[in-house]
Amino acid sequence: MSKVLVISGSPSPTSKTEMVGDLVAERLAEYEWNAAHLRIRTLPAAPLLQADRSDPAIAEAAEQVARADGIVLATPTYKASYSGLLKVFLDLLPQFGFTRKVVLPLATGGSTAHVLVLDYALRPVVQSLGARHVVQSLFLLDKHLDCSSGRPGIPPESTEMLDGVIEQFRKALIAAP
Q1: Range among 9-23, 61-75, 153-167 with highest mean pLDDT value
Q2: Rounded (10°) angle between helices 156-175 and 16-30
Q3: Distance between CA atoms of 35 and 9, rounded to whole angstroms?
Q4: Rounded to an integer, what distance in angstroms lies between the CA atom of residue 159 and that of residue 1?
Q5: pLDDT tens for residues 95-129?
Q6: Up-side HSE of residue 10: CA atoms within 13 Å toward CB?
C-alpha cells in the first residue's frame, strides 16, 4: 500500500484549500491508500521559519515527506503565487526531497487569471526537489468551493476535474517502481 501525504499550505484554520486537501485524502483512502494530511500552519512558527530540522515537529514533518510515495501539494493563491507558508516548508526539505515521488499540485484562488501559478511558480520548485513524476495540476475557483457545511461542496464540473487528477495521480503511483 502506497503512502500519500497531502500538504496544505494555507495559514487559515477555515481554509477552503485545506478542506480540498481533506477531500483528496478521503478519496485516496477509498482506494485503500494510506493518506495523511500535514497542515503546515500547525507546525511551530519559529522552528519552521528558521528551518530548524532539530525541532521534533519539524523533523517529524520532514520524515513524513521522506516516507511518502506520493505528495499532494494544496495551496491557496496569494498575490499570483503559491503561499509563502508552503514555500518556507519546501525550503527546509533536502535538495532532492521529492526523489522517486509522484506529486499532484492543487491550488485554489479567486480568479482564473492566477491559474498559471501551478505551472510557472510551483512546478519548477517541485521539479527542483527531484520529483519522479508531476501529474496534471488543478486550479479550483474559490466561488466553486462551498464550505459552509464544514465539508467542501464542489459543483459537478469541478468534481469531475478533481476526480480526473486524483485518478491520474493514482495511476502514476501504481506505475511507480
Answers
A1: 61-75
A2: 50
A3: 17
A4: 25
A5: 999 999 999 999 998 888 788 889 999 999 999 99
A6: 22
For residue 45, the number of C-alpha atoms closer than 13 Å in the C-beta half-sphere is: 2
122 dihedral zone (left: phi>0; alpha: psi -120 to 50; beta): alpha
Q: Which residue has the higher pLDDT, 131 or 15?
A: 131
Alpha helices in 52-144 (DSSP H): 56-67, 84-92, 117, 123-128
> Which stretches of the chain are assigned E, i.e. beta strand?
3-8, 34-39, 70-78, 81-82, 102-109, 133-134, 138-141
Question: Contact 25/89 with Cβ under 8 angstroms?
Answer: no
φ/ψ (deg, to 5) at 176: -65, 140
How far is C-alpha 41 from the geometric centre of its chain's CA atoms?
Answer: 13
Question: Per the structure block, which three cell numbers stand in for 22?
Answer: 481533506
